[in-house]
Amino acid sequence: MLNKSFTDLLNEMAVLLELNQDNVFRIRAYQTAAQAVAALTSDIASLTREQLLEVSGIGKGIADKIEEFVKTGHVKEHDDLKEKFPAGLLDLLNVSGLGPKRARLLYDELKIDSFDKLKKAAAAGRLQKIPGFGEKIEQNILKGLHLAEQARSRMLLWEARRLVNDVLLQLRGVPGLLEIEPAGSLRRGKETVGDLDILCASRNPDALIERFTHLPSVERVLAAGATKSSVLLSGGVQCDLRVVAAGSFGAALQYFTGSKEHNVALRERALRMGYTVNEYGLYRVSDKKQAKPVAGKTEQDIYKKLGLSFIPPELRENRGEIAAAEKNRLPELLEESDVKGCFHNHTDLSDGTSSLEDMADAAEKKGWEWYAVGDHSQSLKVAGGMAPAAVRKKIEKIRALNKKRRVCRLLSASEVDILADGRMDYADDLLAEIDVVTGSIHSGFHQSEEQITGRLVKAMENPHVDCIAHLSGRLLGRREPYAFNTDKVLQVAERTGTALEINGQPDRQDLTDINALAAKKRGIPMAVSTDAHSTEQLNYMSIAVTVARRAWLEKSDILNTKTYPELLEWLKD
Ligand code: DGT
Ligand code: CA
Ligand code: CA
Ligand code: ZN
After folding, report:
1. 125-141: b or e for each residue (b if 16 or more CB lie within 10 Å)?
2. Residue 116 has pLDDT above 80, yes or no
3. Is the beta carbon of 354 within 6 A of some atom in ligand 1?
4. Is the CB of 185 under 6 A from ligand 1?
5. How far is it, in rounded angstroms, from Cα 194 to Cα 156?
6. Containing domain of residue 188, as a range?
7. Where residue 234 sits, what CATH number does that domain have?
8. 210 lies in the same domain as 261
9. How confident is the model at residue 2, as a pLDDT?
10. 189 within ligand 1 shell (Cβ under 6 A)
11. Where a domain ends, among 117, 152, 187?
12. How far is the CA of 245 from the centre of ligand 1 (A)?
């Protein structure tokens, strides 16, 4: 499928045009087209010109470029533009606080075209001397550099899953393969992943290693040993493949899943019980030569022999899971199949790329029982926030659609901005007409902790607000969380019965697992949301569910597990 690489190309075109100080409408057209292509479910290479032109956001110019790209793998205008600027300059745009305009200035004034040069210049205080920069901007750029460096060394869970699934798919057919499973932080569902760990048992390790080191996505082979091979995938991500004997597979999977802290605690427990545990198996301490493992083929056997119920990977962080497993008191974790709907998402009426009908169809296809169709509120102009009249029209439309559709019931929803002074972005009479009101902070991120906490409290005290979205406002690798008093916010959520959201966007994932667990302890209802901006993004539900699992959440903690009548009942309260 060419869509991803073409989307990247379009986004890069938009940036290059901006660096080139081109016409703003042209730049905007490329950005819109990138969103449109990203949301397509069919391969652009398989669409006719007529079909392409039917997609909103794709005009004649873009259709030409698609044809050129499908035929040649290149777009000449893109190549030409790229030649005008050094490659490192584009890299700089990953630093938050540095848009194309400022990057261009840095290049023109100080010849800065790499991370390193930028870091040196900022540290030496040379940026603030450029007209229009100043000390504050320099500080922001330094902060942005720090975040970007962190982001470079870790990838988002979603991206890690995509990469690993691709590798697994290609290894599954190799002759002699007995078992294959991803391990490490990926299997534990951590929000970001450092490197990819894959574990295999095989009758023919050589064939496996041979295939692994020659995958099309492999850029460089770091090691190709019979038991451990490491490669760099394109994009510089390291992937380790370990091959073990089938009798040790469970022990190795347990060991390489981690976390290290969980493993240390487990090993101490084993020792107290007269066992040693390592990646080969569980042995009696008296078995000095480790000749006869007590367990090793499956993880289940190992936990069982240690007197524990099976601990799901998401809980293996040494946060009390071993004590709970000993008493058979582990939570029955939320499953994606428990989810019956979603109430934070968008359509093309605001900044989404799919229509209301398409989103509803996609929700139905996911097997959901209800779907609250959301959009942004009026103040969020950059995201096409909706004016009150448009919201009312949308509510009418949803009512009409519900007369025709029976499988997945539609509700109206809105992600309503919590304004800088804590007022909601719609008047109460309109809020009362919307089925599900989610309050969000999208502005004033730099306010003090008191101010932001005050805004959140005021929003939760509004009886029309059902839920607070993405509490923290962070964007992993790009924006730090805003300052807020967690205890105070949880206390008010508990008192007002306002739900808190776990957002499934790969770069958000907040509530964090820690905050979600704290909310559970107070009995605060929570929602898992996709915040989808296209039909495809409804798949981000899997990310939100993973965060919930890492937070020890069960079906009963989550509003999305309610049936349609139960949900209506909850909304009434
Ligand atoms: P990452 O890659 O930074 O996101 O985190 P992990 O957890 O995937 O860590 P990684 O890739 O270094 O190692 C994979 C697993 O192997 C880790 O979760 C636990 C296990 N492991 C690695 N080194 C050690 C160690 O020195 N002691 C113990 N007990 N376990 C280790
Ligand atoms: Ca890892
Ligand atoms: Ca590793
Ligand atoms: Zn939002």
Report:
1. ebbeebeebeeebbebb
2. yes
3. no
4. yes
5. 9
6. 155-244
7. 3.30.460.10
8. no
9. 79
10. no
11. 152
12. 20
Strands 196-202 and 237-244: parallel
Question: CA nearest 356: which of 296, 438, 413?
Answer: 413
Residue with tokens 């050129």: 68
The mean pLDDT value for 468-492 works out to: 94
Residue 401 falls inside a structural domain: yes
For the chain, percent of residues with pLDDT exceeding 90: 77
Residue 441 lies inside a defined structural domain of this protein: yes
Query: Comparing C-alpha atoms, which of 539, 439, 454, 445 is closest to residue 499?
Result: 439
Could you give the CA distance from residue 230 to residue 444 in angstroms, rounded to a whole number?
45
> What is the CA(546)–ligand 3 centre distance, in A?
21
pLDDT in tens, 299-340: 999 999 999 999 999 999 999 999 999 999 999 999 999 999
Pocket test for ligand 1, best of 157, 185, 254 (most atoms within 8 A of CB): 185
Q: Name 568's Cβ contacts closer than 8 Å, sequence gap at least 6.
A: none
Length of the chain: 573
SS3 (DSSP) at 119: helix
Of 428, 386, 394, which is closest to residue 411 (Cα–Cα)? 394
- The mean pLDDT value of the chain amounts to 93
Stretch (H or E) spanning 244 = strand 237-244
Spatial separation of the C-alpha atoms in residues 453 and 483, rounded to whole Å: 8
Farthest CA pair distance, the chain = 78
Q: Are residues 445 and 540 in the same domain?
A: yes
Is residue 98 predicted with pLDDT exceeding 90? no
C-alpha radius of gyration, the chain, whole number: 26
DSSP output for 429-488:
HHHHHSSEEEEE--S-TTS-HHHHHHHHHHHHHSTT--EE-STT--BTTTBPPPP--HHH
